[in-house]
Amino acid sequence: MRILILGGDGYLGWPTAMHLTAAGHDVAVVDNYLRRRICTEENVEPLFIVPDLHERAKIWKADSGYGIQVFIGDLMDWEFVERVFKEFDPEAILHYAEQPAAPYSMLNRQAAMLTLENNLKVTANVIFAVREFCPKAQIVKIGTMGEYGTPNIDIEEGWLEVEHKGRQQKFLYPRQAGSLYHTTKIMDTDLLWFYVRMWNLKVTDLMQGPVYGLTTYENESKENLYPFFNYDELFGTVINRFVVQAVVGYPLTVYGKGGQTRGYLNIKDTLQCVRLSLENPAPEGELRIFNQFVETFTVNELAEKVQKVGNQLGLKVTIKKIENPRLEAEEHYYNPAHTGLMDMGLEPHLLTDEVLAQMLETVIQYRDNINEEAIFRGVKWD
Ligand code: USQ
Fold first, then answer.
1. pLDDT at 221
2. Distance between CA 251 and CA 318 in Å, rounded?
């Protein structure tokens, strides 16, 4: 399949590009290096220097024999979008091309506007490009479990059958996000659903939980093929942050009571999920939604796991509950369904002690690169 990956430079984009070529697909990546630019502006550089996309494509080609086509440009710019779609003629579009960080979206008005403008405009351009240049192509879009928030009822996979005054109708599951970033993902879903109804698009929207890890099937011990790995407060996800904090002796930053529960997955499972979704497309005129995670934990449970394994490796790991910079429920009900991807063949990698030990050992090699000042700056959400 000819698969166009939008956001191919990101934490998930590049590992996905390698994975899909290794699975026999023809892949092109698109990126404008927005994430790199913001990280430089905010002084939150990743754990190690990551070669740019042209360079990584060269390294991967030498390593595996698989080629990846690279397009550098801004997907908000229609002329660029037109060129990419006409040149590559995709059969599938995997859309990661968004400002992905909740804390960054809450930093200030400028960051909020960038998040809104980038995320919605790119999604809209993707929809219009599919309609105009490749109407038979499927779209696989990365959404987020955060679209649902933390409701006091079970979370279904995207849809809810509602009975009201004796009549029934299926609606998108009610969504109430906790950050502007997560809210843009709700708006994306609404845009996609609208154009699925108008134009019979084939769309899969993957409601993903926080991802952790840096090694995948394709990059094991090849550090120049590792993903763009953030550990700072703005862009780092919680498990990746805790691992880096454990390595550098920074008390693990549990926000508030630490009862916040989310659905987590290993980066290897992200790769499986997007590949399975692409290889088993949604039918025409359908917005198919899967909840993309494999197990749930509270923040306290994660901190305790990292502490235990870290101490076994001889690190002195402490945990510190700090005032929560975010506005979120710190103790709540959380029971999301997640059977769709399992039914398609997802084989989960769980957060075992071995997996954490491997992550810690990898990060230990980069201990000298860790900038403790980037770990916590307290971006208040209120
Ligand atoms: N948390 C801490 N301490 C930290 C960092 C986070 O207690 O040092 C807590 C947060 O308050 C939150 C939970 O851990 O309750 C998860 O935080 P996170 O930063 O790992 O995840 P989040 O900001 O929600 O965003 C991440 C990704 C985003 C993705 C989302 C999935 O950055 O792209 O959409 O996970 S989800 O969280 O399910 O919405």
1. 84
2. 5
Q: What is the pLDDT of residue 228?
A: 96
Quote the pLDDT of residue 204.
99
Name the token pair of 228. Answer: 């763009």
Nearest CA to ligand 1 atom 14: 238
Mean pLDDT, range 347-368, rounded to an integer: 98
- Give Cα separations from 192 to 208, 212, 268 (angstroms): 17, 27, 27
Residues 10, 22: Cα–Cα separation, whole Å: 18
Percent of the chain with pLDDT over 90: 99
* Closest C-alpha to ligand 1, atom 23: 102
Q: Does domain 2-374 have CATH number 3.30.70.2190?
A: no
**What is the residue whose two structure tokens read 């993902």?**
185
- Ligand 1 and 12: CB distance under 6 A: no
pLDDT at 103: 98
Per-residue confidence at 156, pLDDT binned at 50, 70, 90?
very high
Return phi, psi of residue 240, to 5°. Answer: -60, -40
> Which of 117, 112, 39, 21 minimizes the C-alpha distance to 74?
117
Q: Give the per-residue pLDDT at 367.
A: 98
Indicate which atom in ligand 1 lies nearest the CA of residue 252: 8
Residue 99 has pLDDT above 90, yes or no: yes
Confidence (pTM): 0.98
Quick check: CB of 33 below 6 Å from ligand 1?
no
CA 128 to each of CA 33, 197, 287, 313, 328: distance values in angstroms, whole numbers, following the listed order = 23, 14, 16, 52, 35
With a 6 Å cutoff on the Cβ, whether 336 touches ligand 1 is no
Q: What does the alpha-carbon distance between residue 58 and residue 163 come to, in Å, rounded to a whole number?
A: 56
For atom 17 of ligand 1, the residue with the nearest CA is 238
* 281 close to ligand 1 (CB < 6 Angstrom): no
